[in-house]
């Protein structure tokens, strides 16, 4: 599906999500309505809105949360996939690619949901300073966010890079090689090790993206957490940095988070329908 088709689907997706939110909201309706209205008002009045997204948003698109029961880490031992093992041992590389292929299969055709489309709409309306994501599935780009607005702290599964010459490959091209029997593919230019462009255990965080995420978090006046329990560091420090810089903090998540105690507004529930409702209120406020 092309970008325009996804964006058209997004309008329908947000509308359906808003209907579900209205029909199935199980919290006190007046309290929820007040929270939605206030968040929308904050977005309208904010000079700099930073959105921070975690795995909870991706699960609404059918992508498993790999840390939850039944996820990948129930089948594999995470300690087997440390970066040092990957670069030093061919057997470890083969096992890594087996695991990475299973993960990729679960996300390559996943569609963006109402939450992704709502965040993309914030950018279109000029209200998004940046999107900081822990997710590696590329769904924000499918929804319509631009690369200049997205900071992928944990990399992306949509591409593969050579660890020697940094040549970048489309993921599907390398997966074709794996399917053909290459258990641990190598670069066709320099013979270096190929690895999905994600951050593995023990691998350094991307310097530019991490530094920029801290800078944007510190400078914003509204920081929104969507679908993250805020337990994976250093990414989970971003809301703390934002609050220390004077920003309002909104947390939208199904369960409690590590930063609930410092949040200005907490909305517990499904992120997509909640974001669709916030976007609708925001558009009413600015007469769109």
Low-confidence stretches: 20-24
The CATH superfamily label of the largest domain reads TPP-binding domain
Task: Please describe the biggest sheet, giving its number of strands, its sense, and whether it closes into a barrel.
Answer: 6 strands, parallel
Number of domains: 2
How far apart are the termini? Answer: 27 Å
How many H/I helical runs? 12
Strands, count: 9
Oligomer: single chain
Query: Which architecture of the largest domain would the CATH scheme give at its second level?
Result: 3-Layer(aba) Sandwich
Strand order of the largest sheet: 3-2-1-7-8-9
CATH topology of the largest domain: Rossmann fold
Mean pLDDT: 89
Principal-axes geometry comes out as elongated
Can you give the helix content as a percent range? 40-55%
In terms of DSSP E residues, the strand content is 5-15%
Could you characterize what this model shows?
This protein has 288 residues and is an alpha/beta fold. The protein folds into 2 domains: 189 residues, Rossmann fold; 89 residues, SIR2/SIRT2 'Small Domain' (2-Layer Sandwich), CATH 3.30.1600.10. The protein has 12 helices and 9 strands. It has a 6-stranded parallel β-sheet, with helices on both faces. Strands 5-4-6 form a 3-stranded antiparallel β-sheet. Helix 1 crosses helix 7, helix 1 crosses helix 12 and helix 2 packs across helix 12. The chain is elongated, with a radius of gyration of 20 Å. The chain starts with a helix and ends with a helix.
């Amino acid at each position: 599906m092309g970008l325009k088709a996804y964006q058209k689907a997004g309008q329908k997706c947000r509308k359906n999500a808003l209907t579900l939110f209205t029909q199935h909201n199980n919290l006190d309706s007046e309290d929820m309505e007040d929270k939605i209205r206030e968040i929308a008002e904050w977005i309208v009045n904010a000079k700099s809105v930073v959105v921070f997204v975690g795995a909870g948003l991706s699960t609404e698109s059918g992508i498993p949360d790999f840390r939850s029961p039944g996820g990948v880490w129930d089948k594999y031992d995470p300690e087997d996939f440390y970066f040092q093992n990957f670069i030093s041992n061919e057997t470890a590389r083969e096992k890594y690619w087996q695991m990475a292929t299973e993960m990729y299969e679960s996300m390559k055709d996943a569609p963006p949901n109402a939450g992704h489309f709502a965040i993309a709409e914030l950018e279109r309306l000029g209200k998004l300073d940046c999107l900081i994501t822990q997710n590696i599935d590329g769904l924000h780009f499918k929804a319509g966010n631009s690369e200049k607005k997205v900071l992928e702290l944990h990399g992306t599964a949509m591409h593969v890079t050579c660890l020697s010459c940094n040549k970048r490959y489309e993921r599907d091209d390398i997966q074709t090689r794996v399917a053909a029997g290459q258990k641990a593919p190598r670069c066709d230019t320099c013979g270096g090790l190929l690895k999905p462009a994600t951050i593995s255990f023990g691998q350094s965080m991307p310097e530019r993206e991490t530094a920029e995420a801290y800078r944007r978090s510190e400078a914003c006046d509204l920081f929104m957490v969507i679908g993250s329990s805020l337990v994976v560091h250093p990414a989970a420090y971003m809301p703390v940095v934002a609050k220390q810089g004077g920003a309002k903090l909104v947390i939208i998540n199904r369960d409690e988070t590590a930063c609930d105690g410092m949040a200005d507004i907490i909305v517990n529930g499904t992120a997509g329908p909640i974001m669709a409702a916030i976007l609708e209120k925001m558009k009413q406020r600015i007469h769109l």
